[in-house]
Structure formats: structure tokens, C-alpha cells
């Protein structure tokens, strides 16, 4: 790997790394190349993202030998500052975090290059965990507004990117008069009825709250589906501030009962507007599911008491190092709690004093 002197050069080398990295490669096999890329991106971002450069100067860090030494910017900085190396004229898209209207949202700025890298990052890891449906009559059903209706939502853009890979995809989310996300139950049930009548496999993707809204209506009307074999579901986001809380286990059981989708074909996603890569869970023996990022991202669980990486089975706050975060910062300190499980994590939820956030907060 030759010296990386620009964001263009870095993007090219990152794509090459993505292309030759097998999805199930353990982190120790990719450590050396990840470390070189991370060190190069740190130097580029420390020089060109003003607020990050000030943080690094305050900590007197001008270079790193190991990616774990890279300073992480608190996620709250995305609300207070423009965390970007892009000038005003270069910014072609901005994603906002979704929260209650009284809160100032986080902002993640993109240009065409960084947005393309975001899409190149999300697709292979998504397909690894939720392979494309096969057959001429399979379909994707998104329980959210489209990117056209929600242009500042990273989740809507993610779903739009996934939807472009399928000849039959539809969005049944909409915006109400106050701009909150709402689920069009009529359109959703029509799509489910059509899929069931045609024995057509369908993949449902949406926020956790949108699934609760759908499943509560199924229960209230005693509408039970037996979707075709191969059907699957993906849920993301939480409930805080908008809905009763349903555990992941209970939500999956509800999906199985009312939609006929086996728990083995239900997936959870962890993502943020401040990141460009996503983590997905896999069910393992033990107390809960373990989330893992793709090989071009790393997660650490940091003890809030010591500031050091938590040990196996210990609880801390999630810190993400995302090489696909091209024009902002790769190292982001979140406010989410998790238990360290090997190279992955078992998600607990929000830190107690953190403000509500997440795509489910856009739903009434």
C-alpha cells in the first residue's frame, strides 16, 4: 500500500480493501491493512476537519501507530459543530439524526464521493446478513417513507439503496402533517395480502416501532399471516419517547406469530446517521444477540469509569472506528451501552442521561 495523500486516493484503496476482504474474515487477519488505512484517514481528517483538528491538537496527537490510539469525537459534536472536511459548496447531501423536535439534530455532510462510498459500504454487509430474495415474484416492503419523502434520513437512503437492487420494492411509510413518520396500514396490509395470495416471499424492513404498530393492529384485528417460505424481516431503532418498549425477543416472537416469519429469519440492525457502516446481529448461545460491523469498521466497548476498553462480558459505551466515514471523522464515541462479546457487542440501549434519538422517534 503506497502513501495516501488525498481523500480520492483513500477512497480508491478502501474500495480495494472491501473487494478483497472476505465478509467472515476475523479482525486479526485484516488488522495490518485496517491499521494502515485508519492511520492514513486519521491524518487526512485531523488536517481538514477543523473541530477534530482542535481536539487532536489539545490532546497533542499528531500521528498514530495503532488505530486504537485515534481520538474519538463524541457523537454530540455532530449537533454543535459542522464535523466535515467539505466546504459549503461541496456538500450535496446532509443526513440528520432523528429526535424530538425540541432537540438540535446531528448532521452528517456528504458529497457525491462520500455518499457513493456509504452505499458501497452498506450493500455487501447487508447482503451478507439478509441475502437477496430469489425468484421473479419476491419483493421488498419498507415500512418507512422513501428517500424522496425523507431526504435527510440516512435510514431512508439506506433502504432506497437496497430497494434499487430489487425489481419489486415499495415503501408504505409516509409523513404526517407535523413531519413525523407514519405507517400506511392500508398499503401495508394490501402488500402483505398480495404476497400471501401469490405465495410470494417478502422481506419486511423497518423501525422497531413501525413493526409494533403493524403487529398491534394484527393482534387487534386478529389478522394472522403465513408468509411464503423464504420471507424475512429486519428491524432497527428503538422506542424511547414514542411507544411502549418491546424487547427484541418479544418483538421477534410477535413477528413469528402474526407474520409467520421464523425467528431465524429476523435480523436487527445497528446504525447511526453519524456512521457510514452498519452492524447486524447474529444469534449466539447466551443472554442475547451479538452485533458485528464489517471488516472495514471496528467497535470498542469503553468503560465510562476508566476510559479504557472493557473486558469480555463487561459493560461500556460503544466507540466505532468506521473507515467509510470519509469526509467527517472515522472515530465516533456514541452514547449507547453494550456488553463486550468477543469482537462484537450485545446492545443494551441508551446511556441513562442521553437524549432520545433514532429513526423510531420520527414515528408518532
Radius of gyration: 20 Å
Order of secondary-structure elements: HHHEHEEHEHEEEHEHEHEEEEEEE
Percent of residues in helices comes to 25-40%
Q: Based on Cα principal axes, name the global outline.
A: globular
The average pLDDT value, as a whole number, equals 89
CATH architecture of the domain at 119-274: 3-Layer(aba) Sandwich
Number of helices: 9
Distance between the termini: 50 Å
Cross-sheet strand order for the largest sheet: 5-4-8-9-10-11-12
CATH class category name of the domain at 119-274: Alpha Beta
Strand content: 15-25%
Please identify the structural class as seen in this structure. alpha/beta
Q: What is the compact description of this entry?
A:
This protein has nine helices and 16 strands. It is an alpha/beta fold. It has a seven-stranded mixed beta sheet, sandwiched between helices.
